Give the backbone structure.
Amino acid sequence: MKILVTGSAGHLGEALMRTLRNSSHRGAYAPIGLDVLASPYTDIVGSIADRAFVRDCLRGVDAVLHAATLHKPHVATHPRQAFIDVNLTGTLTLLEEAAAAGVGTFVFTSTTSAFGRALSPPAGEPAAWLTEDVVPVPKNIYGVTKVAAENLCELFHRDSGMPCIVLRTSRFFPEEDDQAAVREARADANNKANEFLYRRVDIEDVVSAHLLAIEKGPSIGFARYIVSATTPFTRADLGDLRHDAPAVVRRHVPEFAAEYARLGWTMFEGIDRVYDNTRARVELGWRPRYDFQSVIERLRASEDILSPLARAIGSKGYHREVFGGVPYPIQ
């Protein structure tokens, strides 16, 4: 199977290329990495907004994994038009040429950031329970273009019949949090461990979701899926989560308290949203390996909480510039 991976120099793109190149099914997969930047995992350098270039790249391709994008960290450093050019026009060009080339399945990497203002309920309200049925309310140009690109995928499936699967991934980046208050309150590993309860996913699990999307795409047609670590919480926890998250975590993962005390770590006092990955697990057959329970088990065994793949890729950053000790500037 010939697979075109866009954004192959990026974090997810490299993870997809590494996995496809090293797969136990080697020979069954023939991945081609495409990016505007040269890298060890980029086979073809060029822009997804260049139609002639994209048409050439798609010859003989069976599936597209479209991970190329401008991200939230670029909102303050790039003009809005750049987001339109890359995230929207680039996706449109890929979809048009993929449909014309008879590509079997098109997988679009979206983001839970697309939910935008739907993520944070008003003060005093329970935490939000996020499923694919929640209507996004984008709060910046990044969210606007990702939601619009998702809708283009749905349109192309309806009009051309090409299977299109949208994967809304939660946080998997290794960089520190962009909020100074979060960085200053706890160690970075402590923050990331906490996030596995409700808003983080390991890159290895993100890759497996993409490969399942290729496999199941033809039978599904079109669908959106939340790709986030499996939460131990239920809807019944939402009220308590907002003001006493440690008590809720103790109910579900009681062993966390002793391990956190040993490390000098603390749990967030409140959690304002929970991503529910049930639909991806049921319809894609996705089985994420990394969740908060596995984090505690790895800590107790003095192991890294991240997968070998996440550690191999490491931190890439989002800009060539350095911004005075912060991960990236905030608009």
